[in-house]
Amino acid sequence: MRQVMYVMVCLLVGCTAGPSISTRYHSPNENSRVQFIVLHFTAENFSQSLKTLTHGDVSSHYLIDSEPPTVYRLVDEARRAWHAGPSYWQGHTALNASSIGIEIVNLGNSGQPEDVYAPYPPAQIDQVVRLVRDIQQRHAVRPHRIVGHGDIQPQTKQDPGPLFPWHRLAEEGLIPWPDPVLVAEKTVVYTASLPPVSWFQERLAAHGFEAPQNGLLDEPTRRVIAAFQMKYRQARFDGSPDAETAALLATVTAPRGMLLRDVHGLWSPYTP
Q1: Total domains in the fold of the chain
Q2: Which tens digit of pLDDT belongs to each residue from 213-237?
Q3: What is the pTM of this model?
Q4: Residue 78, domain extent
Q5: Do residues 69 and 185 both lie within one domain?
Q6: Active site residues
Q7: What does the alpha-carbon distance between residue 46 and residue 32 come to, in Å, rounded to a whole number?
Q8: Rounded CA separation 232/242 (Å)
């Protein structure tokens, strides 16, 4: 009966079918719309996270619970999820349109002192690694484009926070990592003479951040430095421009300063 009514309506008002489309030909001049993978913590438990991501004003492609460590797909990868906000990385903006968002159930520093964060269970991180590797391989995402929410929005976000094991992702060959030998050498140099704040701002921008360029150690600059430290110097992330942070910044922006581990476990210079 419903089909008959539809036909009658079409006869009365005129229904236009879509065009007949042939898929006989195919152009090789294409790539995936997915250029970035962005990692988050939810700052809520699983049930609250699920409610926020399915009934709130934000969303993500995936949600990874911790007990048990389970991966849930909430948004199809072909669709845009609303997880990145007013984002920036290496000249790219509005990363919702070009990224896959992964929310990891973790309380972060919610309800805790400012510098106290919840740990990530190893089994949950195993699932993160598997998912990131799968997405990276299917969409050919470059290793330097696997980032945290705090990288792309450092003025307002910190996730996935200083306890997220970025070095584990580096050991898995998913992201590049600063050459430790070069970092040690440069730490000696910058301990003797620390560069000015303007140098830190320039290097942060060269690495990929949207960083102030005013030569002032203001709060926006400190927040960007802290975001950098949360990934590469997690023992202390106070936003202070110290010698070790300078050495790390000099290394990550040096032509052969970043290393990537291959399938054989060997580390080689990585070029973005």
Answers
A1: 2
A2: 999 999 999 999 999 999 999 999 9
A3: 0.91
A4: 36-171
A5: no
A6: 103
A7: 30
A8: 13
